């Protein structure tokens, strides 16, 4: 991965152990919000990622590129692929049971991804330092050990629940999340 200093963890930053109550190894993660473009089952043209954690620390998911995801004819749009990276990385930091948002997302595009391709996504945390989480992801064509088509590195920033109250719809989060304290 070509990674800038902004998405490289400082010396000593380590990924924390999963907190009590975090999904157990092998658990399916489900959607965090039905209308989410990345994982929502109610979104008509979203990515419909289905995810699980094989070990309680990393996340695996699949994304099948559809007609709605094209840039050039019959090829995935680069922004859509970045969205898939953002989503699977977001799911991996969500394992720590704190609210984070994307601050910076860097993406390497290595291969074109045709419509109909299933991308096998994997994301993991390289370290956390204060409010900053340093994460990475890759998308492989056709199989978990297929050729790498996309790589991403990201800096996610921990926020309070006020972030969602002030800028979004906290009630919608409360309706779908019992595992966050949603009354700031
Ligand atoms: C909770 C329930 C929901 C469930 C969620 C499930 C997730 C599923 C997946 C969801 C979908 C996927 C997820 C999505 O799509 S999340 C949606 C996309 N992201 C956003 O909308 C975030 C918009 N940005 C902001 O709200 C603010 O800018 C944030 C909160 C990020 C920081 O503003 P805040 O005022 O709070 O803090 P700060 O400015 O003092 O910064 C703090 C530190 O961070 C450093 N910094 C900041 N930005 C950058 C940057 N770009 N590069 C390098 N560094 C950066 C900064 O220098 C500082 O460092 P230091 O000076 O301390 O050293």
UniProtKB/TrEMBL annotation:
**Keyword list, A-Z:** Apoptosis, Cell membrane, Cell projection, Cytoplasm, Fatty acid metabolism, Hydrolase, Lipid metabolism, Membrane, Transit peptide
Location of the region described as Disordered in the Swiss-Prot/TrEMBL record: 1-25
* Domain of life, source organism: Bacteria
- How does it sit in the bilayer? Peripheral membrane protein
Q: Specify where it is mainly localized.
A: membrane
Reactions performed catalytically: (5Z,8Z,11Z,14Z)-eicosatetraenoyl-CoA + H2O = (5Z,8Z,11Z,14Z)-eicosatetraenoate + CoA + H(+); decanoyl-CoA + H2O = decanoate + CoA + H(+); hexadecanoyl-CoA + H2O = hexadecanoate + CoA + H(+); tetradecanoyl-CoA + H2O = tetradecanoate + CoA + H(+)
Q: Top EC class per UniProt?
A: hydrolase
**Where is this protein localized, as stated in its record?**
Cell projection, Ruffle membrane; Cytoplasm; Membrane
Ranges for the Thioesterase domain? 76-140
* Keyword Transport set for record: no
- Asked if Transcription regulation is a keyword of the record, the answer is no
Task: Please give the name of this protein.
Answer: Acyl-coenzyme A thioesterase THEM4
């Amino acid at each position: 991965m070509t990674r800038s200093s902004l998405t490289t963890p400082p010396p000593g930053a380590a990924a924390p152990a999963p907190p009590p109550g975090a999904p157990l190894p092998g658990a399916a993660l489900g959607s965090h919000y039905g209308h989410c473009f990345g994982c929502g089952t109610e979104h008509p043209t979203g990515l419909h990622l289905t995810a699980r954690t094989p070990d309680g620390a990393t996340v695996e998911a699949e994304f099948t590129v559809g007609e709605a995801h094209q840039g050039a004819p019959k090829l995935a749009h680069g922004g859509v692929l970045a969205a898939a990276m953002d989503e699977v990385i977001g799911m991996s930091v969500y394992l720590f049971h704190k609210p984070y948002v994307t601050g910076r997302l860097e993406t390497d595009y290595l291969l074109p991804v045709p419509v109909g391709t299933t991308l096998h996504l994997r994301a993991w945390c390289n370290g956390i330092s204060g409010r900053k989480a340093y994460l990475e992801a890759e998308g492989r064509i056709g199989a978990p050990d297929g050729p790498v088509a996309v790589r991403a590195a990201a800096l996610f920033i921990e926020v309070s629940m006020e972030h969602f109250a002030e800028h979004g719809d906290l009630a919608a989060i409360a309706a779908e999340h019992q595992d966050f304290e949603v009354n700031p």
